[in-house]
Structure formats: C-alpha cells, structure tokens
What we know:
- By secondary structure, the protein is of the alpha+beta class.
- The chain contains 4 helices and 4 strands, in the order βαβαααββ.
- It has a single domain (2-118), classed as GTP cyclohydrolase I, C-terminal domain/NADPH-dependent 7-cyano-7-deazaguanine reductase, N-terminal domain (GTP Cyclohydrolase I, domain 2, 2-Layer Sandwich).
- Helix 3 (53-64) runs antiparallel to helix 4.
- It is elongated, with a radius of gyration of 16 Å.
Amino acid sequence: xxxxxxxxxxxxxxxxxxxxxxxxxxxxxxxxxxxxxxxxxxxxxxxxxxxxxxxxxxxxxxxxxxxxxxxxxxxxxxxxxxxxxxxxxxxxxxxxxxxxxxxxxxxxxxxxxxxxxxxxxxxxx
Length: 125
C-alpha cells in the first residue's frame, strides 16, 4: 500500500476541558497519513484517481474549527471517521492532533494524540 501524508495543518479551535479553552480557543496542529493504492494515480496523472489534499484540508479545517470537543482524542476520532467515510479509497488513516500550548504551567512542546483507524473489511454476505 502507498501513503499520502499531510503534515502541519494549523487551525484555531475551541477544544478542551477547561472553560477558558472553550472561550479563548487556541491553535491545533493536525497531521494525516492515508494508506491507499496510488498506482492508478501514478499511471494516469489524473486527480480523480487519488485524494485531493486541498479538499481534505478543507474537511479537516471544518472539523477543527467547528463544534468543540473536550478531548483532542475525540477531535482526532471525528477527523478519522470523516475521512474514512468521505474517501472510500482510503484503507487506513492515521490522525495526529497536537495541542502545542495547553493551559498548564508545564515547560514542554505540547501534547499529541495519534489515532489509527482501518476501514472495516466485509467478507461475504
């Protein structure tokens, strides 16, 4: 299987457990790794044979800038579910969501969750 990787998508959202996170918002960084067959796209040079990453970026933006989640785990889950439902040629998706500046007095580079979801395989009737 081939991969398409989109790194460092930055959005402003209102996710978090603390009320000030929901009120003030903060930046989130999203990486997406898609596992899919890119042979037809490589051979045909046809956008219809692959995932349009501009469209994918817009979908992720709508989710991150949309209704807030308490947990970035839930946010990553929303993104993974949406991408698998939208792009039927994706076999597996890895979604990484980073909150670079959590509102805690901790000196670190933020917190990241990473979810990997596979398309359900249906065998037989």
